[in-house]
Design a protein that fits this description.
Shape: elongated
Number of domains: 3
Low-confidence stretches: none
CATH topology of the largest domain: 2-enoyl-CoA Hydratase, Chain A, domain 1
CATH superfamily of the largest domain: 2-enoyl-CoA Hydratase, Chain A, domain 1
Number of helices: 21
């Protein structure tokens, strides 16, 4: 080991440069961030990574572009590699205290180097975003820098996990790299994302708005669906990233990590048959079903506040990672609409990319009707979910809890769509439409002339439910593999996934399919 106090000229210069670099991150630097409710760039990295595992690269890069009158080492971004749960990751963290974290051509080259390393070595890449966008002083050079980053995002897509953590502003071109990654994490109050800021909105449209109203974390979590996770502060956000990575493989040729956790107690699973109300039109919370079937406290929901009529997330079943997709009867009766279709389709494709088996809990009365849905393209957006399930080659299992009607039944990983196993609870209703709707069409003339129309309608609906809209009819015709008792669901699923562990699926040679984007 070299002695940093060595007075020989080469080592003296070596030590001086390191001192000068560290001086950039002094108390003043930390205070600048603290005043904004933020952590400093190295505090963020140290919270994210395993203790002592970070190794920085390109620490002494300096911008030589015109306009940078006081260039700093690092050019406003800290890059390197480290470990999370003992597994290698690549990371870059933008420093908003230098030129607002803006991206210049050398700043961009540092990020591109990290992306290249991550792709070549097969490790996840995490970006800690805190940037005002392209560095105006550098003109087209900064724009070209973004182009190289976007290209690397696309090259890495589906090969390594890419996670963006937005901890401050992400403005202009800075928003598109996160949009190309697998997950976006945002922090309340300090994080915001927008293509054009409030001042441009005011100038062009004469509309008054704030950073938070235009692109704050709550907006992107509830309205746009851009943010997958939102946290109260940076510490929780970075710990959330560590948790997320515990479910993911390092790349697309590996399998998710096996972590032994507490499994479910049979006594608790005995509650499953009583979660669904006797009246099939009454709602319930599908989270209760999920949490009683997967391993204890392992369900990690994604996009919780966006399109809550569908629930997606990662979990463990018998210690193995699975992706969960579930209709939520508590919201909009669990119908599929534009937003829920997009949300679920993207998640299904992510799971398929990274060898994560899929488990579907189905209770869907159909697609949301209405002029707005039709005019805004529910056909095309619904087809995205259909396409995603049909294309996925990982093990796919569906459990029909209650309603499974019409086209929505087909879309939710039905047997004819390539579902490997399709099970149903005795409460399942599988049909083209609900019994009441079917009766209105099939017996329209009789109902028009009936003395007691409602009584006759109820009688005919019950008959339709008994004869057609039930799981036993579907089981007898091979559309359901087995009708199972709710309390036995966990054991049935564990056995089925074990059987599918070595599933092989060959695809015809092609460049790629044309998903209805």
């Amino acid at each position: 080991m070299r002695n940093m106090n060595d007075n020989r000229k080469p080592y003296k210069r070596f030590a001086q440069r390191e001192q000068d670099r560290l001086a950039q991150y002094d108390e003043v630097h930390v205070e600048k961030q603290q005043k904004k409710g933020k952590l400093s760039v190295y505090e963020r990295i140290n919270l994210l990574l395993d203790e002592g595992s970070f190794h920085e690269v390109d620490a002494f890069v300096k911008s030589d572009q015109a306009g940078n009158t006081h260039p700093q080492y690092g050019d406003g971004v800290v890059c390197g590699h480290g470990e999370i749960h003992g597994r290698k990751v690549l990371v870059y963290a933008q420093d908003a205290t230098y030129m607002g974290g803006s991206l210049g051509h050398l700043h961009a080259k540092k990020i591109q180097k990290v992306q290249d390393l991550a792709l070549r070595m097969g490790h996840p890449v995490i970006g800690l975003i805190d940037s005002g966008g392209a560095r105006i002083q550098e003109g087209v050079a900064s724009l070209a820098g973004y182009g190289g980053i976007f290209l690397n995002n696309v090259k890495s897509s589906g090969i390594i996990p890419q996670i963006s953590v937005v901890l401050g502003p992400a403005a202009g071109g800075a928003v598109y790299s996160p949009a190309l990654t697998d997950f976006i994490v945002m922090v309340k109050r300090t994080a915001c994302m927008f293509v054009t800021g409030p001042s441009v909105v005011k100038e062009v449209l004469n509309e008054e708005t704030t950073f938070e109203e235009l692109g704050g974390a709550s907006v992107h979590a509830t309205k746009s669906g851009v943010a997958d996770f939102v946290y109260e502060d940076e510490e929780f956000a970075l710990l959330g990233v560590r948790k997320l990575l515990s479910y993911l493989p390092s790349n697309n040729v590996e399998y998710p990590p096996l972590v032994k956790r507490m499994t479910q107690a049979p006594l608790k699973r005995a509650r499953l048959p009583f979660i669904l109300p006797d009246d099939s039109n009454k709602p319930y919370d599908v989270h209760e079903v999920i949490n009683l079937i997967v391993d204890v406290d392992t369900f990690y929901e994604v996009g919780e506040d966006y399109a809550p009529n569908i629930v997606i997330g990662l979990a463990r079943l018998n210690n193995q990672v699975i992706g969960v997709v579930a209709n939520q009867p508590n919201v909009m009766a669990g119908t599929l609409d534009i937003n829920s279709s997009k949300k679920a389709a993207r998640f299904v494709r992510f799971c398929d990319n990274f060898n994560i088996p899929l488990l579907v809990f189905e209770d869907v009365p159909g697609f949301m009707p209405g002029i707005n849905q039709e005019h805004d393209g529910v056909i095309m957006h619904g087809a995205k979910l259909l396409y995603a399930f049909a294309e996925a080659t990982v093990p796919k299992i569906t459990v029909i809890l209650r309603k499974a009607y019409g086209g929505a039944y087909i879309v939710m990983n039905s047997k004819s769509m390539g579902g490997d196993f399709n099970f149903a609870w005795p409460t399942a209703e599988i049909a083209v439409m609900g019994p009441e709707g079917a009766v209105n069409i099939l017996h329209r003339k009789e109902l028009l002339t009936a003395d007691d129309r409602e009584a006759m309608k109820a009688q005919l609906a019950n008959k339709y439910r008994e004869e057609i809209a039930n799981p036993h009819f579907a089981e007898e015709h091979g559309y359901i593999d087995e009708v199972i008792a709710p309390e036995n669901t966990r054991e049935v699923l564990i056995s089925a996934f074990a059987l599918l562990e070595n599933k092989l699926s060959e695809k015809p040679a092609r460049k790629h399919g044309n998903i209805p984007l």
